[in-house]
Amino acid sequence: MAVKHTKIIPVALLALLGGCATDTYSVQDQLAADQARLAERVDGIERKVDSQSLLEMSRKLDAMELELRGLRGDIETLQFELQGLNSRQRDQYMDIDSRLQGLESGGTAGVAATSGAVVASSAGSAAAPVAGPATASEQESYNAAFNALKDGRYEQAASAFSQFLATFPASNLADNAKYWYAETFYVRRQFAEALSTFEAVVKDYPDSRKTPDALLKIGYCNYELGQWSRAKSALTQVGQRFPDSTAARLAGQRLDKIKAEGH
Question: CA of 255: how far to CAs of 1, 129, 196, 239, in Å?
Fold first, then answer.
């Protein structure tokens, strides 16, 4: 009987162990399947996220491209307007200076030359004595400086006008030269330097035809420098001293602007 029991126990044990092994394999298979499904879901989510990110990036790039196109258009417009402004400014320089030189030479209407070589001021101020016609070398030097200014070569123009004033301080073109010398600073927004030079024009050439314009620019420079009381004082003087001039009209417009801005 003992032998029979010994044979039965291993068989039962093997059966039990076999069942456990089968259950273990089933659990492992299930875990592997669950892992595979989880990995597949993760892959799907990642693909979806990647797709959404790429779509969002694409939208942002499109928006940036549209904005860039708009900015390029704005830049082109500004460049065109600036070119037009520079062209108009150069034309004004040419026109004003040619008319002034014509007046100084006594060759145009509106000049009242007397035996004392006196020319009536176009700004309505007292008559100013003229030193006489410019020599050929003076005119050549002045024209070279003025042409540089018209062409927008402001640093070269500044140097040329400075040299002219040093070489021909008594020239009848000296007041014009100093005025345009001041303009070379003003157009480059060097308002402190422009201010002192325009002030020198008014001080050194009080009866010059450039005095109204120089006084106007003194007001403009003080405006740009935020010196409101000085700006208003200079602009008011323009209207009081030269009421019928273009400078007076421009001075009035700038005074209105200062008032509107609350300064």
Answer: 131, 32, 21, 10
- 105 against 168, higher pLDDT: 168
Q: What 3-state DSSP class applies to 111?
A: coil
- What element of type H or E holds 129? strand 128-129
What domains are there in the chain, each with its CATH number? 134-260 (1.25.40.10)
Within 8 A by CB and 6+ apart from 164, the residues are 138, 141, 142, 145, 171, 173, 174, 177
Task: Specify which residues 129 forms β-bridges with.
Answer: 118
Amino acid at 24: T
Quick check: 188 and 154 in contact, CB under 8 A?
yes
Reported as half-sphere exposure (CB side, CA atoms, 13 A), residue 52 has a value of 6
Burial of 6-23, coded b for 16+ CB within 10 Å and e otherwise, reads: eeeeeeeeeeeeeeeeee
Instruction: Read off the pLDDT band of 118 (50, 70, 90).
Output: very low
Q: Model's pTM, two decimal places?
A: 0.55
Q: Which candidate, 192, 194, 214, places its Cα nearest to that of 202? A: 214
**Half-sphere exposure (CA, 13 Å, Cβ side) for 247?**
27
